[in-house]
Amino acid sequence: MTGAEARADMFIEPDLDPRTDPPAQADERGTLSAFLRWQRETLELKCADLSPEQLARRAVEPSTMSLLGLIRHMADVERGWFRRGMAGDKDATPVFSTKAEPDLDFDGAVADPEAVTQALLAWRGEIAFAERFVADARSLDITFEDKWRGDISLRWVLVHMIEEYARHNGHADLLRERIDGRLGQ
How many Cβ atoms from other residues are within 10 Å of residue 52's Cβ? Predict the structure, then answer.
């Protein structure tokens, strides 16, 4: 494949990119929030314009990873770090996994329009909660106690979430390419 052919299979032309570029100069909260937003928008872009069947398509055996599974997983990750951890809502249990079935976020991703709607609503709702929480937080130094790591700051959570999305966006690139040949950027 030539460079021109590969570019034709890419998601979007650079000047048509719907994602919001992080500012080149901002304070720490603004920079971290903007990079996290860009990663979230990247996952949304990888899932755009696909049917429930395509979103639920598994990577390769024996993996249960799918784009829909990634959305479900990230809804639970957002919920865990921001709502349950930082905000201290101990009743905010995962939406798509359980202690008995910790991989249900991926295993339960089925090709059903209602399952897709439910996953996207939950994910977007958790993002909205997280964005409000970060905007309203008095400092990036606020903490909560994690049973494995001890005190964790909001700063750490933001950096971790950027890393978490970046890693899974790499998976999303491969999943999307397998579905319809579209290449990541």
Answer: 17
Tokens 């304070």: give the residue: 27
- Helix (H) / strand (E) element for 135: namely helix 113-136
Residue that is written with structure tokens 């720490």 in the block: 28
pTM of the full predicted structure?
Answer: 0.91
Task: Give 27-52 pLDDT, tens digit per residue.
Answer: 999 999 999 999 999 999 999 999 99
User: What single letter denotes the amino acid at residue 142?
Assistant: I
Please say whether the beta carbons of 178 and 59 come within 8 A: yes
Residue 32 has a CB neighbour count (10 Å cut-off) of 21
Mean pLDDT (whole number) for 15-21: 77
Q: How many CB atoms lie within 10 A of CB 176?
A: 21
Q: Is residue 66 within 8 Å of residue 111, measured between CB atoms?
A: no
Contact 161, 77 (CB under 8 A): yes
Question: Helix or strand or coil: residue 7?
Answer: helix
Alpha-carbon dihedral of residues 86, 129, 175, 99, nearest 10 degrees?
50
The two structure tokens encoding residue 114: 């209602």
What is the C-alpha separation between 153 and 161, in angstroms, rounded? 12
